[in-house]
Design a protein that fits this description.
Elements: E1 4-8, H1 12-24, E2 28-32, H2 35-45, E3 49-52, H3 61-70, E4 79-83, H4 88-97, E5 101-104, H5 109-119
Parallel strand pairs: 1-2, 1-3, 3-4, 4-5
Helix pairs in contact: 2-3, 3-4
Length: 129
């Protein structure tokens, strides 16, 4: 079964690019245009990974991550921030909130695919104790 990625992005061109790219490399995708929709979809769809812009119309990814990480139903979902913001303070805030990766746009598609693959791998199963 394909792993599912939730894309939270208000730029429709970038959202569409990410959707097409991730589907081509074998992922299912879902989209949300703002953080509130993203939180709602994360709760209802339980994606394997969330890719979000840092600044969205209703709240930042830092605020949305804090909400998702407090809820046991979504606390284990890795979150990747994809942003043009190179400010170290924003990166620090995002990582402190629980973001798994803070990536600067533009990012090469193969690099993004590698990060997504790594973050969506199931945990290893212990066969011996």
């Amino acid at each position: 079964m394909a792993r599912k990625i939730l894309i939270v992005e208000d730029n429709t061109d970038l959202s569409e690019f990410l959707t097409v790219f991730l589907r081509r490399v074998g992922y299912e995708t879902s989209q949300a245009g703002n953080s509130a929709q993203g939180i709602s979809k994360a709760l209802s769809e339980r994606p394997d990974l969330i890719i979000t812009d840092l600044h969205l119309p209703d709240m930042t990814a830092v605020e949305a991550t804090a909400i998702l990480k407090k809820d046991p139903a979504t606390s284990g979902i890795p979150i990747v921030v994809l942003t043009a913001m190179t400010n170290g303070e924003w990166k620090r805030k995002a990582l402190k909130a629980g973001v798994a990766e803070y990536l600067i746009k533009p990012i090469a598609p193969p690099e993004l695919a590698k990060i997504v693959d790594t973050l969506t791998q199931p945990p290893p199963v212990l066969t011996e104790l």
